[in-house]
Amino acid sequence: MVDPSLRPGWPAHLTWGPVELHPPRWRDAEEWSRVRTANEAWLAPWEPTAPGPWAARHTPSTYRAMRRAVLRRAAAGASLPFVVRVEGRLAGQVTIDNVVRGALRSGNLGYWVDRSVAGRGLASLAVALVCDHAFGPGRLHRLQADVRPENARSRRLVERLGFRHEGVARRYLDIDGDWRDHDTFALLAEDVPGGVLARWRARVPR
Questions:
Q1: In 3-state terms, what secondary structure has residue 165?
Q2: pLDDT of 20-67, one tens digit each?
Q3: Cα torsion for 124, 127, 129, 133, to the nearest 10°?
Q4: What are the structural domains of the chain?
Q5: Of 31, 25, 113, 35, which is closest to residue 64 (Cα–Cα)?
């Protein structure tokens, strides 16, 4: 059994308004499969290259295998994986992965949302909640987000939450069939002394 002190901040359940975040659950498989399948055109350009058709890679059994893998990483302290729900409906995922402790105390941010909830500030809210959790109970100091230059929505999201551009990683990840350049953004705990959620709230129109 892994020492709980090696995975601070996990497991966790986060909520704010209509957004709820919780660890991946076994019973979410069918709903996850429906949402991912329906969002192929929306998500595929930003997803890692993988063999086989989209539908075959997003079955309930695929979800269950993915869940087992990410929960093992979470139990080992290497990941903070969350499913996003909006008004009770599965609408995406936010994950802090590749967590490194010691002197670095860093993790990589990744996320996706259902197209039907995009443009309402809810993806930003979900990411803000996870960032605050990572800096607080998760005891991390630095979060990194790598975004393709063409992904204007994701660039705006991280910039609005306070992430700063640090450079370009050439041909960094194998995405949608080719090696793609990525812009590297980072957020440090001291960049947002009032919290990322507070920054999000200050920018949301009333």
A1: strand
A2: 999 999 999 999 999 999 999 999 999 999 999 999 999 999 999 999
A3: -160
A4: 12-203 (3.40.630.30)
A5: 25
